[in-house]
């Protein structure tokens, strides 16, 4: 998940293209900063690549002809409202296949798997089985669109994964590092900050020196790439609800208000 920023690709914001009813392709991928738009386009030719998803955008896509698959990797939150669960349910109800991985996509996929949203990767499985429970596990701060949404903090899930895999760490050091990582606000999390905190806490110097020099894995990026491989290998239709049963999504007052907001051009 990412914080709110300016949104544009090739000089055109996704809100503009969605409002005009021209999403541009059968497969839509919302991404940034987990992967770059260029990498997604190279790995999934023909897909329309959009910045992180925000409230209303899945609902807008569900009303457009020609869209068959939506893949959510990254999504906004905090200063911009996050994508609603009911938007995704509407897309599933209307026959779109909706996939998620790595960040906001993994979180929503775990929450909506009983209704047919498909999740991919270790982060999705962690949310699905309850070993990950907090939204801030995948949250990062990032730069604006002009800088490719480059992350300026490290996701807690990436820190956890690296701590678990680093061969020089003992069990006690691993546990203490996780505690220290969780104590930092998501915007402040990074490998250098974590190692500095660990040194201040008196954790074993030799182990920390080895950790500082060790190449760090990127669990979020790995899960996102796995999702793209899955999408490239298959052509999907939605499964519907649990057991493949058709969905019937109630049109609540809040959902009708969101539809009216979209109809007014988000004003």
State the low-pLDDT regions, or none.
Answer: 5-17
| Average pLDDT taken over every residue | 89
Major sheet: arrangement of strands:
3-2-4-6-7
Beginning-to-end CA distance, first to last residue? 24 Å
Helix content: 40-55%
Helix and strand sequence:
EHEHEHEEHEHEHHHHHHH
Whole-number total of structural domains: 2
Looking at how many chains there are and whether they match, the oligomeric state comes to: single chain
* Radius of gyration computed on alpha carbons: 19 Å
Strand content: 5-15%
Q: How many helix segments?
A: 12
Largest sheet: 5 strands, parallel
Which class of secondary structure composition applies to the elements?
alpha/beta
Question: How many DSSP E strands?
Answer: 7
Note the overall shape: elongated
Structure description:
With 267 residues, the chain is of the alpha/beta class. The chain contains twelve helices and seven strands. The chain has helices spanning 14-19, 37-43, 57-62, 85-93, 104-112, 122-129, 156-165, 171-183, 191-200, 205-213, 219-233, 253-263; strands at 2-3, 27-30, 48-50, 69-72, 76-77, 97-101, 118-120. The strands form two sheets. A five-stranded parallel β-sheet has the order 3-2-4-6-7, sandwiched between helices. Helix 5 links the parallel strand 6 (97-101) and strand 7 (118-120). The two termini are 24 Å apart.
């Amino acid at each position: 998940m990412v914080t709110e920023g300016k949104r544009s690709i090739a000089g055109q914001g996704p809100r503009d293209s969605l409002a005009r009813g021209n999403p541009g392709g059968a497969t839509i991928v919302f991404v940034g900063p987990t992967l770059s738009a260029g990498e997604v386009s190279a790995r999934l030719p023909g897909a329309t690549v959009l910045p992180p998803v925000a409230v209303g955008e899945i609902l807008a896509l569900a009303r457009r002809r020609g869209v068959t698959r939506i893949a959510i990797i990254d999504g906004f939150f905090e200063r911009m409202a996050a994508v609603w669960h009911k938007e995704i349910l509407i897309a599933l109800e209307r026959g779109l296949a909706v996939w998620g991985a790595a960040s906001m996509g993994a979180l929503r996929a775990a929450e909506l798997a009983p209704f047919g949203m498909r999740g991919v990767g270790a982060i999705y499985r962690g949310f699905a089985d309850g070993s990950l429970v907090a939204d801030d596990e995948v949250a990062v701060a990032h730069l604006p669109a002009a800088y490719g949404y480059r992350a300026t903090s490290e996701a807690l899930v990436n820190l956890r994964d690296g701590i678990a895999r680093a061969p020089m760490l003992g069990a006690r050091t691993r546990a203490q590092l996780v505690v220290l990582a969780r104590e930092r606000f998501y915007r402040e999390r990074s490998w250098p900050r974590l190692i500095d905190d660990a040194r201040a806490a008196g954790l074993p110097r030799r182990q920390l020196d080895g950790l500082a020099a060790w190449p760090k894995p990127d669990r979020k990026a790995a899960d996102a790439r796995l999702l793209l491989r899955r999408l490239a290998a298959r052509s999907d239709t939605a499964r519907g609800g649990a057991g493949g049963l058709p969905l019937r999504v109630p049109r609540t007052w809040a959902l009708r208000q969101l539809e009216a907001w979209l109809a007014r051009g988000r004003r």
